[in-house]
Specification:
heterodimer; A: about 120 residues; mainly beta; six-stranded mixed beta sheet; four-stranded antiparallel beta sheet; globular; B: about 120 residues; seven-stranded mixed beta sheet; about 0% helix
């Protein structure tokens, strides 16, 4: 079975600091990878996704993530965070092919950005 | 606005009550999902429907009964719940299952409290 590990439960940064949130998954086959964000009181929104091709993917609001197949990782980065980035971030993975509807989520990382 | 609307947003019910959660998607999708989001746990996939047919029941107790009358609507009927069923219940939709680039879009959820 697939599993997703997010290393940090709660990250606290000051504005303009750089961000990197770790995500590792366990699955040996082809995968699709996602980062979702949940702002306080709002729905889960897709931040970025990787299906194939360039392992460095860019998403909304200046976020990017790099797929490193050899490390089974898909870390999320942002060079300079803002107070409005305060939210919970979820990494998710599904297997390619016929089972690609089964999203497996990590436990989430709560990001608090202090002004 | 996500295109996936869930009602009610909050629900408090006793253990002997019967209630229903509703989800409606306006995205023209054909697959719909129920997830459970509990504190400090990853999102758990509960049910999947594809073209109104249930394709996944992730060992969910029978006190949760889903219904999908058409591709745009999904219900979760609740009866004789337990306090540990208190959680945020999320609905999601996607184009279809088995598509190579399957992206799920989420509603804002129903916060359920079982007393």
């Amino acid at each position: 079975a697939q599993s997703v590990s997010q290393h940090n439960h709660h990250v606290i940064l000051s504005e303009a600091a750089s961000l990197e949130l770790g995500c590792n998954y366990s699955y040996g086959g082809t995968v699709n990878l996602f980062w979702y964000v949940q702002y306080p009181g709002q729905h889960l929104q897709l931040l970025l996704k990787y299906f194939s091709g360039d392992p460095l993917v860019k998403g909304i609001k200046g976020f990017e993530a790099e797929f490193i197949k050899s490390k089974f990782s898909f870390n999320l980065r942002k060079p300079s965070v803002q107070w409005s980035d305060t939210a919970e971030y979820f990494c998710a993975v599904n297997a390619g092919g016929g089972s690609n509807y089964k999203l497996t989520f990590g436990k989430g990382t709560l990001l608090t950005v202090n002004p | 606005e996500t295109g996936v609307t869930q009602t009610p947003r909050h629900l408090v019910m006793g253990m002997t009550n019967k209630k229903s959660l509703k989800c409606e998607q306006h995205l023209g999708h054909n697959a719909m999902y129920w997830y459970k989001q509990s504190a400090k746990k990853p999102l758990e996939l509960m049910f999947v429907y594809n073209f109104k047919e249930q394709t996944e029941n992730n060992s969910v107790p029978s006190r949760f009964s889903p219904e999908c009358p058409n591709s745009s609507h999904l219900f979760l009927h609740l009866h004789t719940l337990q306090p540990e069923d208190s959680a945020l219940y999320l609905c999601a939709s996607s184009q279809v299952m088995g598509v190579a680039k399957n992206i799920q879009y989420f509603g804002a959820g129903t916060r359920l409290s079982v007393l």
